[in-house]
C-alpha cells in the first residue's frame, strides 16, 4: 500500500517529506484546506472586480509593480508570468528535489493565504501522484522573491507547457498530461504569481540534504571508530566524564556513538593499559567528537530553521481572508535558509576534512602503528591504497571552494527593485555537491580502515564494527594485490548513502 500524506495547510514531518521525495507516496488535499483556500480566493476575486491596485493582480511584477493591468487581462498576465520567468539554464534538478518542491508548493498554497483555487493544489498533486516531474534547469535563481525561475519551470506543465520527465524519459508536458489523464489548468488572477513566489526550492534542497547529512555524520563516527581500531588508538578520550565537562549536544552524541563502537574491542583491550604505546593520539582521532559534534550541532540549527519554514507562509502578496487585505511584504526572501544551507556546507566539509587526515595516517607507515605502507601486502611492487588519499584530497579541495558562502553574494535584480537577494538556491546547489564529495571521502576512510583491521588479526574490533566490516566484505574483498579501486569506493559510498552500513553497525 502506498504511503499516504495529507496536505491540510499545517507543517509536514521530515519523514513524510523524505518518503515523498523518493517516490511511492500518495498525497491528497484535505477538504478543510480546500475550504480555507476558497475564503482567500474570494478576496482576490473582489479585488479584480473592484479594479483595486493590488501587486501582481492588477499590476506588473518586480520593477513593473507600478504598471497597471486592466482586469480583463488578469488571466493573460498570469500565463505570461510563467512563460517569461522560465529562464533557467544548466543541468536539471534531481528528481527527489522536484518531488519535494511539488509537495512543499502544494502545502504552502493550501494554507489559505495565497488566494488560489483548490484546483491549483489538486493539479500539483496529480503531477506528483502520477510521477510526472517537471524538468527544472538547475541554475537561475537568486533566492529573493523565492526561487522564481525554478518555480516557473515547475509550474509550466500545469498549463500544458514546458517539459516533464516520466519514467526517466523527457517529453512535452502536453503529451504527458494527456497520457496521464490530467487536464491542463487555466490560470486566473494571482495564481501564476502564487506558483512562483516562495522559498520551497531552497527548502526542498535543505530538507533532503539534511537527511543525507545526518547519515554522513553517523558514518563519520563509524569511520573514526574503525580507524581508531586499525591505528591502535585509545578509547580513553571518548569516556562520558570528559564530555560532561563540555556538554555540547553534538559532541556528547558523537563521543557516545564512538565509545559504543569501541566497546568490547579486543584490539583496544590489547593496549588499554600500555601508556608507552601512545600518550596522545592525533587530533583527528581523539578530537573527533569535538569536530563531528560541531557538525551535528550545525545540522540541528539548520533543522530548526527548516521546521519554522515548514509552518510558514512564504507567498507574496499575502491574502488575509479575515480582513480582506492583500499585503505585499517579504516572506519569500530566502536569507534564513541561505545562511542555514551555507552553514551545512561548511560543517559537512569539516567532516570530510578530518576524515581525510585519518585516511592519511592509515596509509603512512610513519604514523600507522606498524601497518604496511599504503596498506599494501607487498609495498613497492604494489601501491596499495596510495591513490585513494589523492582522491580524498582532491574532493576536500573542491569542498573548500564550495564552502565559500553564497549568502553574502547579493547581486541586485529587477532594476534594483529587488536590491538585496539571498542566493539561497546557489547555496543549496553547492551543498548538494559537498554532500556527494564527502560521502566518497568517508567511503575512502572506511575502505582503508577495513583493510587496516585485517592486519590486526587475530585481534578483532567490537562486534558492531565486525558486523560493519562483514557487510563491506560481502561486496569488497581485502586487498591482496593491486586492482582498480573506483568501483569499490563507489560501492562503499552507496552503503553510506543508503544507511545500510549504519544499520549493520547498529547505529540509529
Helix-strand layout with pairing:
Layout: E1 3-7, H1 14-21, E2 25-29, H2 31-49, H3 74-85, E3 89-92, H4 95-109, H5 118-129, E4 133-134, E5 137-139, H6 148-155, E6 163-166, E7 169-172, H7 173-180, H8 191-196, H9 200-230, H10 240-244, H11 249-262, H12 266-269, H13 283-286, H14 288-309, E8 318-320, E9 325-327, H15 335-363, H16 386-402, H17 424-454, H18 463-473, H19 486-498, H20 500-504
Parallel strand pairs: 1-2
Antiparallel strand pairs: 3-5, 4-6, 6-7, 8-9
Explain this structure to me?
Strands 4-6-7 form a 3-stranded antiparallel β-sheet. A two-stranded parallel ribbon has the order 1-2. It has 508 residues and is mainly alpha-helical. The protein has 2 domains: 3-197, Fumarase C, Chain B, domain 1; 206-504, Fumarase C, Chain A, domain 2 (Up-down Bundle). 54% of the residues lie in helices and 6% in strands. The radius of gyration is 26 Å and the shape is elongated. Helix 9 packs across helix 11 and helix 15 packs parallel to helix 17.
Task: Please give the radius of gyration in angstroms.
Answer: 26 Å
What structural class is derived from the secondary structure elements? mainly alpha
Please write the CATH class name of the largest domain. Answer: Mainly Alpha
The H-level CATH homologous superfamily of the largest domain, spelled out, is Fumarase/aspartase (Central domain)
- In the sheet with the most strands, the strands line up as 4-6-7
Principal-axes geometry comes out as: elongated
Number of strands: 9
Which architecture of the largest domain does the CATH hierarchy give at level 2? Up-down Bundle
- Percentage of residues in strands: 5-15%
CA distance, first residue to last residue:
26 Å
